[in-house]
Write a structure and sequence with these properties.
The structure is a single chain. The chain is of the alpha+beta class and 346 residues long. The chain folds into 3 domains: 1-80, SH3 type barrels (Roll), CATH 2.30.30; 95-226, Sandwich (Immunoglobulin-like); 238-345, Ribosomal Protein S8, Chain: A, domain 1 (2-Layer Sandwich), CATH 3.30.1370.110. The chain is 18% helix and 37% strand.
């Protein structure tokens, strides 16, 4: 079956839904999932959403046609996952502005929700305003806690055609009061806007992204004694049950490749059912991922093979929602072909 760009599809094994954004060749497609992440997929692992609904109605499936279409995105937006109390950022980007797209029933963009993100270890005060043709449309003044985000408001898609002007002021909250005033004026131009896309910290969603302030003036650090400063800045970073380790030896000995073929995991694999093998593979993968994050490995390769793609999809479903994963891809690699997924951590 050939899928046109813009076709809405469903993963057969996991139930995830998304939109085809590109044809990669060799029977593979690029699919933009409903939660904003884009992953490669085999055609055999997908079915058109019309076919799926036809099956539910016990009607014959609709035949796919080869037509060119514009990229379309998902309609339903997933609920925003809460930030865990112990969540920490490995590398802070600073104070950031994010535009998260919202969609109409036909898949076209209706507008954007604006978020202010603070992934630093400092609380701060902010003043935000968005003007259109000199008219104030959004105004927000408040405190934003460390490692958190706040919703600023929502704008319709048409605002992008009118060069909205954004002004942001920010003050770090210190033990002596507030720090130095930081100011940023930002004119949103559509051409640059659509190029500034990334997975935003804390939101864990693909957004149009701007870094407003990448650092604060922190004069109070000089007044701290070395013991206090070291103790404050070298706390272990919590990631579920894992902790960031500074062990050079453990990092040096860590194998950046995990082979999940059944024969590599158990001597009795040939006596195990498919379900038992999959459970063993997923458990091994979860433990490996926790350790990779704990020791501070920048990237790893998960070797899952091809097969029917069920293991690959199970791995993708976990990586999509993992807060410490910056991105992952199942591109062609001369060592593994399409049988491995590369994972890059934050």
């Amino acid at each position: 079956m050939i899928y046109a760009i813009g076709s809405r599809v469903r993963f057969i094994h996991t139930g995830f839904e998304g939109v085809v954004t590109a044809q990669l060749g060799d029977g593979m497609l690029s699919v933009l999932l409903d939660d904003g992440d884009e992953i490669p997929a085999f055609e055999d692992d997908l079915m058109r959403i019309e076919d799926y609904r036809a099956q539910l109605r016990n009607k014959p499936p609709v035949k796919a046609k080869v037509v060119k279409g514009k990229q379309s995105k998902a309609v339903e937006q997933p609920a925003r996952p809460p930030i865990e109390a112990q969540y920490s950022i490995l590398k802070s980007l600073g104070i950031q502005l994010a535009f998260e797209a919202q969609y109409k029933s036909d898949g076209t963009t209706s507008g954007y929700i604006l978020y202010l993100i603070n992934d630093t270890q400092y609380d701060c005060l902010y003043a935000f305003s968005l003007l259109l043709g000199g008219v104030l449309k959004i105004k927000s003044n408040d405190k934003i806690a460390s490692v958190s985000y706040v919703k600023l408001g929502q704008i319709p898609f048409d605002y992008l055609n009118e060069l909205p002007l954004i002004e942001v002021e920010c003050w770090q909250v210190t033990t002596q009061g507030t720090g130095k005033r930081l100011y940023k004026k930002l004119k949103i131009k559509a051409q640059q806007f659509f190029k500034k896309i990334r997975t935003a910290p804390l939101l864990n969603a693909r957004v149009h992204h701007y870094v407003l302030f990448d650092s604060f003036d922190t004069p109070e650090r000089a007044e701290e004694d070395l013991q206090t400063y070291t103790k404050k800045n070298n706390k272990p970073i919590r990631t579920g049950k894992s902790h960031q380790s500074n062990s050079v030896t453990e990092l040096a000995n860590f194998d950046p490749e995990l082979d999940l073929h059944a024969e590599q995991l158990s001597d009795r694999w040939h006596k195990m059912s498919n379900a038992e093998i999959l459970r063993l593979q997923i458990k091994t993968f979860d433990n490996y991922l926790d350790k990779a994050i704990r020791v501070g490995v920048p990237r790893v390769f998960i070797i899952h093979g091809l097969g029917k793609g069920r293991l690959r999809n199970e791995i993708a479903s976990r990586l999509i929602r993992h807060p410490d994963v910056q991105t992952f891809k199942n591109d062609y690699d001369p060592r593994y072909g399409y049988g491995a997924t590369e994972v890059i951590f934050r």
